[in-house]
């Protein structure tokens, strides 16, 4: 997959809740990001919301030792910061925490009350100012995407980032096909569900298939999300051990029979569904 005319690794690095723990935990999280960057993962996803900037601050400490054009940095702003003036203010605050001069992608975190025309105008100004290379959205459903597409310069939206895992497949029905048709890349978050175990129940078929393939259930879940090589998944990774596991999942392959078995336990959507979000 290519973002910003730069080839992107099969998986990115998600950072929700990173930087919020004690010094030992924070050090583990920093080492995990370094391990990923050192082994070819070249996209980091964060947001001003994550720990009220603590995630961005942690990332900034890591990436200052790396050549900036070797990886892509994605951050997101609150919907109540979606006016041109507040977008600029939020962006500059994020850049300061991240210790960088620009973002590769800047996303509206979810839909708010600010008209999309205002938000798009503000994002376009940030592109022109050289503070971001491209922009996108997150947690947009099909109607949101269509409205955005009809907005002036709305077609410049580079990506939409939604929840996507084996138990949350609603985007496959219309959102993913629509984005492919309109040349908009898709990023799926939470391939393992939420921290509280919501949105994804690991059924016996997952346990058994993972055992048969000599991998962990989590490696199987991540490999399934990226099975078609047509989207990016951004698992949160808080330790080197987890990062190693995620990287190994990239090489996992499925037979047609295995995919059909998984479809039986986690069916494809057959109609439009309400977009799930975490």
UniProtKB/TrEMBL annotation:
Active site per database record: 50 (proton donor)
GO molecular function, one term: oxidoreductase activity
Pfam families with a match to the protein in the record: Aldo_ket_red (PF00248)
Domain NADP-dependent oxidoreductase residues, every copy: 10-265
Matches recorded under Gene3D superfamilies: NADP-dependent oxidoreductase domain
Residue(s) at site: Lowers pKa of active site Tyr: 76
Residues that coordinate or bind substrate: 109
Cited InterPro entries: AKR (IPR020471), NAD(P)_OxRdtase_dom_sf (IPR036812), NADP_OxRdtase_dom (IPR023210)
UniProt name for this protein: Aldo/keto reductase
């Amino acid at each position: 997959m290519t973002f910003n005319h730069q080839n992107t690794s099969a998986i990115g690095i998600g950072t929700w809740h990173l930087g919020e723990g004690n010094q030992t935990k924070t050090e583990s999280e920093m080492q995990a990001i370094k391990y990923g960057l050192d082994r070819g993962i070249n996209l980091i996803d964060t947001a001003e919301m994550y720990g009220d900037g603590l995630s961005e601050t942690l990332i900034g400490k890591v990436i200052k030792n790396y050549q900036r054009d070797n990886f892509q940095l994605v951050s997101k702003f609150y919907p109540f910061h979606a006016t041109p003036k507040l977008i600029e203010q939020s962006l500059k605050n994020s850049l300061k925490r991240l210790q960088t001069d620009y973002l590769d992608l800047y996303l509206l975190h979810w839909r708010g009350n600010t008209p999309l025309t205002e938000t798009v105008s503000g994002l376009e100004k940030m592109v022109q100012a050289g503070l971001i290379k491209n922009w996108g959205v997150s947690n947009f459903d099909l109607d949101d995407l269509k409205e955005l597409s009809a907005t002036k310069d709305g077609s410049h939206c580079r990506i939409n980032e939604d929840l996507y895992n084996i138990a949350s497949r609603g985007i496959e029905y219309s959102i993913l096909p629509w984005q492919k048709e309109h040349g908009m890349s898709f990023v799926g978050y939470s391939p393992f569900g939420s921290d509280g175990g919501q949105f994804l129940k690991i059924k016996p078929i997952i346990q058994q298939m993972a055992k048969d393939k000599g991998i962990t259930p989590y490696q199987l879940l991540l490999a399934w999300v990226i099975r078609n090589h047509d989207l990016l998944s951004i698992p949160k990774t808080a330790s080197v051990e987890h990062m190693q596991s995620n990287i190994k999942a990239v090489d996992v392959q499925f037979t047609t029979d295995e995919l059909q078995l998984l479809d039986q336990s986690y069916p494809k959507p057959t109609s439009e569904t309400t977009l799930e979000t975490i």
